Automatic annotation (TrEMBL):
Protein name as catalogued: Type I-C CRISPR-associated protein Cas7/Csd2
Pfam families: Cas_Cas7
Coiled-coil segments on the chain, per record: none
Matches recorded under InterPro entries: Cas7_Csh2/Csh2, CRISPR-assoc_prot_Cas7/Csd2
Organism (species): Denitromonas iodatirespirans
Cross-referenced CDD domains: Cas7_I-C
Highest taxon of source: Bacteria
Gene encoding the protein: cas7c
Length: 296
């Protein structure tokens, strides 16, 4: 796998229609909002989850593309696998498995985790809890996604024509309908920013093949993450700024400002992507920077 020798900054644009892009469990699963401005939010954790799911789907959870953070995973068992694989199973013996491993063992275990788990070498991980495999700072970082305009969080009453238990059926007196709530955003277009560091990539073994897989994930992750709760979600833009140097040839914020998304004047109440205009200022990019339009 070829090592990265360039810095990358990227802009991810996606939208949601009649769905909940990222519910807040502390607010009854309402769509996340900026309380002051009313703009919608989607956390970086939510976006990384979708990338992990896509990679696990297309790569079949096989090394070197296993997924470390996944549903029902017991992380310490994975750490124990690392110790066994590097020949340090003796350090797992005894009652105190939470003690720190030897410095050399931790280093080898960390390298093994990076080599076998895509999300560890991409996003990093804290693996020092329980059986100690160290910590990894990932070369790929994402921001929260924020909607271009304020969004409206709607709450809908729904009914289920069934009950779960006999006791519930008796309470309904012959009518098995039960009530529930569903939260949606009628429409919102969101923008997230991302960064790829070649210096950190060398430390984790994140290479060109991993980078291409990351781009594919961001392009297609919503196509394989459908659910009734999320409505219609689609990647509408993926714009990658590639720097000739590892340190970078321009400030990231200056490059991000070149991607502008604005609601069209005639669209008083936007309800589709067609209600927005995307403009890209690529006429005079800074020397040493090129723009790759993966989507859009």
């Amino acid at each position: 796998m070829m090592a990265l020798t360039n810095r990358y900054d990227f802009v991810l644009v996606f939208d949601v229609k009649d769905g909940n892009p990222n519910g807040d469990p502390d607010a009854g699963n309402l769509p996340r909002l900026d309380a002051e401005s009313g703009h919608g939010l989607v956390t970086d954790v939510s976006l990384k989850r979708k990338v992990r799911n896509f990679v696990g789907l297309v790569k079949g959870e096989e090394p070197p593309f296993e997924i470390y953070v996944k549903e029902k995973a017991v992380l310490n068992r994975t750490h124990e696998r690392a110790y066994v694989s590097v020949g340090a199973e003796d350090e797992l013996k005894g009652e105190d498995k939470k003690r720190k491993g030897k410095s050399d063992t931790v280093s080898k275990a960390r390298d093994w985790m990076c080599a076998n788990f895509f999300d560890v070498r991409t996003f990093g991980a804290v693996m020092s809890t329980g059986v100690n495999c160290g910590q990894v700072r990932g070369p790929v970082q994402l921001t929260f996604a924020r909607s271009v305009d304020p969004v409206v969080a709607l709450e809908h009453s729904i009914t289920r024509m069934a009950v779960a238990t006999e006791a519930e059926a008796e309470k309904q007196e012959g009518d098995n309908r039960t009530m529930g709530r569903k939260h949606t955003v009628p429409y919102g277009i969101y923008v997230a920013h991302g960064f790829v560091s070649s210096f950190l990539a060398r430390q984790t073994g994140f290479g060109d093949d991993d980078l291409e897989l990351l781009w594919q994930s961001l392009e297609h992750m919503f196509e394989h993450d459908r659910s009734a709760a999320r409505g219609e979600m689609s990647t509408r833009g993926l714009y990658v700024f590639k720097h000739d140097s590892e340190l970078g040839n321009a400030h990231a914020h200056d490059l991000f400002d070149r991607i502008r998304i604005a609601r069209k004047p005639e669209a008083e109440v936007p309800r589709s992507f067609a209600d927005y205009a995307v403009s890209i200022d690529d006429a005079a990019l800074p020397a040493g920077v090129s723009l790759q339009r993966r989507v859009g």
